[in-house]
């Protein structure tokens, strides 16, 4: 599982800054090693979208994964209020399959009170072994992108 999180401010909502933001990757190669891997990449406008990479506990990634009868059940458990949306139900992933699930948010910065924007891309594979698996075209995409106004 890989979560790619991108954050930006109002100055990157349009024009050349938006073009830079829209050019950042939504997938990376996984680190080497035995699975399962919970890989996080965070990029922010304020650090010129330099990737910060970590691995760790699935509970910190905003995703619920369970195994059931040889399949993986996946569901993002991130609940930000903006934009309002109907949530997609959990999905099942067969062994060897993967998908990309995208959600976006508008948040208030805890310190400045300014709006900040966030895109979470979850690349989820089940029983996949290729560390470059998420770099191709996803066979399934779940698009929960809402209007951020």
Topology:
Elements: E1 2-9, H1 15-22, E2 39-44, E3 52-55, E4 63-68, E5 71-76, E6 91-94, E7 98-108, E8 115-125, E9 141-144
Parallel strand pairs: 1-2, 7-9
Antiparallel strand pairs: 1-8, 2-3, 4-5, 5-6, 7-8
Distance between the termini: 30 Å
Biggest sheet, open or closed, and with what strands and sense?
Answer: 6 strands, mixed
Mean pLDDT: 87
Number of domains: 1
Structural class: mainly beta
Q: H/E order of the elements?
A: EHEEEEEEEE
How many helices in DSSP terms?
1
Q: Indicate the overall shape.
A: globular
Gyration radius over CA: 16 Å
Low-confidence stretches: none
> How much beta, percentage-wise?
35-45%
Question: What is the spatial order of strands in the main beta sheet?
Answer: 3-2-1-8-7-9
> What's the count of strands?
9
Give the helix level as a range of percent: under 10%
Protein name: DUF1329 domain-containing protein
Description of the structure:
- This protein has 149 residues and is mainly beta.
- It has one domain.
- The chain has one helix and nine strands.
- The chain has one helix at 15-22, and strands spanning 2-9, 39-44, 52-55, 63-68, 71-76, 91-94, 98-108, 115-125, 141-144.
- The chain has a six-stranded mixed sheet, with no helix packed on it. The chain has a three-stranded antiparallel sheet with strand order 4-5-6, with no helix packed on it.
- A hairpin with a 7-residue loop joins strand 2 (39-44) and strand 3 (52-55).
- The chain is globular, with a radius of gyration of 16 Å.
- This is DUF1329 domain-containing protein.
- It comes from Kribbella ginsengisoli.
């Amino acid at each position: 599982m890989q979560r790619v999180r991108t954050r930006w401010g109002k100055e990157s909502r349009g024009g050349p800054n938006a073009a830079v933001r829209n050019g950042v990757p939504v997938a990376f190669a996984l680190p080497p090693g035995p699975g399962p891997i919970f890989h996080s990449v965070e990029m922010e406008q304020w650090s010129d979208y330099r990737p910060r990479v970590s691995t760790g506990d699935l509970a910190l990634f905003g995703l619920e994964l369970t195994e059931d009868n040889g399949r993986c059940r996946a569901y993002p458990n991130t609940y930000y209020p903006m934009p309002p949306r109907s949530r997609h139900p959990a999905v099942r992933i067969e062994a060897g399959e993967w998908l990309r699930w995208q959600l976006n948010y508008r948040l208030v910065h805890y310190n400045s009170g300014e709006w900040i924007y966030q895109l979470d891309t979850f690349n989820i594979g089940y029983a996949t072994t290729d560390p470059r698996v998420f770099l191709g075209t996803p066979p399934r995409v779940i698009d929960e992108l809402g209007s951020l106004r």
